[in-house]
Amino acid sequence: MATPKISIITVVYNGASLIEATIKSVLDQNYVAIEYIVIDGQSKDNTLEIINRYSNRITKIVSEKDSGIYDAMNKGLKLATGDYVLFLNAGDLLFDTTTISSVFASAIDADIYYGNTAVIDLNGKILGDRRLLPPDNLNWKSLKYGMCVSHQSFIPKRLLCDFYDLNYKISSDIDWVIKALKESKNTVNTHTYISKFLEGGTSNNRRKLALKERFLIMAKHYGLIATLWSHFVILLRYPIHRLTKKSMT
């Protein structure tokens, strides 16, 4: 496949302080075949005004009410025409101006490309890597012990992608990634940083819902017994991770 086209989809709602940096990280790419789609949930702040400043360089802009983030992401998928898709939501950034070029230079015609993710703060300062690093050889079973690849650093062929399951309010991206990996026959680790992920706090209520949804998703794909065992292993590993992290600071 010569010069594959990639659809980069940004979903935003009331993200006026974040959206411009995300847009610029896409528009500054040195890769030509990018279709850029921005889905705004009819923001109440000046998010849409900022988006429209770049309307001549954004392929498609939609601003309308939605039923949550995954409904908005499904709208983006329906509009996408690229060979590959990447979701980069408000506040998240492509790692540098050569990111997309580097991804497609790493291998020809992969079903899925993936890579590393740097965690940043609101000022764009890199805080380090995500706690879970992507494995050398990613497959659908790799997520048994957690989201080892960031959604923002996961680039599947569009034809492999199902729509997001709207029954999940917080963790549908995990289900989406696993389903895409089940369809993949050729998954390539680019061994590069693809994105910068904005670290954000999660309320206790949302954290509880996320854990519940993740358990249900894992049980659906891996079975109840295997999921109970993997969660037991995660609980054993977590204190070790905390101690290791503390000793490094």
Describe this structure in words.
The chain has 7 helices and 9 strands; from the N terminus they run E-H-E-H-E-H-E-E-H-E-E-E-H-E-H-H. With 249 residues, the chain is an alpha/beta fold. The protein has one domain: Spore Coat Polysaccharide Biosynthesis Protein SpsA, Chain A (Alpha-Beta Complex). The strands form 2 sheets. Strands 5, 6, 7, 8 and 9 form a 5-stranded mixed beta sheet that branches. Strands 3-2-1-4 form a 4-stranded parallel beta sheet, sandwiched between helices. A hairpin with a 5-residue loop joins strand 6 and strand 7. The radius of gyration is 18 Å and the shape is globular. The N and C termini lie far apart (46 Å). The C terminus is likely disordered.
Task: Give a brief outline of the structure.
It contains 7 helices and 9 strands. By secondary structure, the chain is of the alpha/beta class.
Backbone CA Rg = 18 Å
Uncertain segments are 239-249
**Would you list the SSEs in sequence order as H and E?**
EHEHEHEEHEEEHEHH
Q: Give the N-terminus to C-terminus distance in angstroms.
A: 46 Å
CATH superfamily: Spore Coat Polysaccharide Biosynthesis Protein SpsA, Chain A
Give the class from helix and strand content and strand pairing: alpha/beta
Total count of strands? 9
The rough form would be described as: globular
Proportion of residues in helical segments: 25-40%
SS element count, helices: 7
Oligomeric state as shown: single chain
Output mean pLDDT.
91
CATH topology: Spore Coat Polysaccharide Biosynthesis Protein SpsA, Chain A
CATH C-level class: Alpha Beta
CATH architecture: Alpha-Beta Complex
Largest sheet: number of strands, sense, barrel closure: 5 strands, mixed
Q: How many structural domains can be distinguished in the coordinates?
A: 1
Percentage of residues in DSSP E strands: 15-25%
